[in-house]
Amino acid sequence: MTDTPLVQVDGLHMHFPVSSGGLFNKTHDVVKAVNGVSFDIAKGETFGLVGESGCGKTTIGRCLLKLEEPTSGTIRFNGQNVLEFNKRETAGYRKQVQAVFQDPFSSLNPRMSVEDIVGEPFLVHGVCPKAEIPARVRDLLSICGLPGRLLDRYPHEMSGGQRQRVGIARALALKPDFIVCDEAVSALDVSIQAQIISLLESLRAEFGLTYLFIAHDLSVVRHICHRVAVMYLGRIVEIGESESLFANPLHPYTRALLDAVPTPDPEVEKTRAFTPIEGEVPSPMNPPSGCVFHPRCPIARESCTKDVPDLLAAPSAGADRSVACPVTAPTPVAA
Q1: CA-angle at 106, arms to 236 and 32, nearest 5°
Q2: Angle (nearest 5°) at CA 193 between 191 and 194
Q3: Element (H, E) at 23
Q4: Which of 18, 73, 133, 268 has most Cβ atoms within 10 angstroms of its Cβ?
């Protein structure tokens, strides 16, 4: 892993219009899915993005894949502004950036065999002769731990773990530099999750891949990610190296997420003090003023209701730590 950013996201906003329907179908509101998110991902790094459902994690991933056009902000890949790419440049970018989706059953075409699914990127981008595709597909299946006899199988004829391996093989077909893993293991059994995580780690080491790992399972994120960003209602509230963040969470929301993880030992779990977060996640159409977490925060003060906290460096908490909470940040300085 190097310190050179492969991906740079700066001030990303993604707002979805909400229409009234009916004859005129006018826009009457917007869903503020992502609000001013910034982060870098170094080459060879696995960068985790965690938070509750609806916080904007997947929307960021879709923006990086150019499946959504952001409302504002910049996304740079190898120093180039992705949002300014023309059609030809976008096609080249999509060779370098691939995705592994959450549900391996719905992300694979049920009418296509494994050979057709994994071989489709070769056809779409015309990177090799058609006669060579079966051999290329066999090689990719072998890399992902699948036997060649599955070539003629269809998605419904395989297990969930096998389907996800097919999805990973398809993502590797064009030799990408960057892969967005959107809840890539959350739909799998725990034992299969461990196998897929091990596969992703070995592929990263072998091919020099870089991952954006979107998840809500903190134990998985802690195991696989080098750095982690915690999101709440469209904003990053804390970011830092994985071990440092898990050992010493600074933001009240990060602390609440970690406190909610059960302890394997039932005796310890019975005596563990745990106070759940009160209230519900506010609507992204009408987020709270000031700090978006203040309506549910146990340490909120008057200024939290008015001032939007910046993501500030907290060097005394460990290297590369930043938090958007002036109450808990130890001697914060501008990042």
Answers
A1: 30
A2: 70
A3: none
A4: 133
Contacts of 60 (CB under 8 A, 6+ apart): 9, 12, 14, 34, 37, 49, 212, 214
Q: What is the mean pLDDT of each run of 10 residues along the chain (335 residues)?
A: 83 88 70 94 95 91 95 95 94 94 87 95 90 94 94 93 95 96 88 92 96 90 93 95 91 89 73 76 88 90 90 77 81 42
Please give the single-letter amino acid code of residue 227. R
- Helices 133-143 and 114-125: crossing angle in degrees, nearest 10, is 120
Structure tokens of 253?
């929301």
Alpha helices in the chain, H assignment, sequence order: 57-64, 87-96, 114-125, 133-143, 160-172, 190-207, 218-224, 242-247, 252-259, 266-271
State how far the Cα of 67 lies from the Cα of 302, in Å rounded to an integer: 40
CA–CA gap between residue 160 and residue 56 (Å, rounded): 26
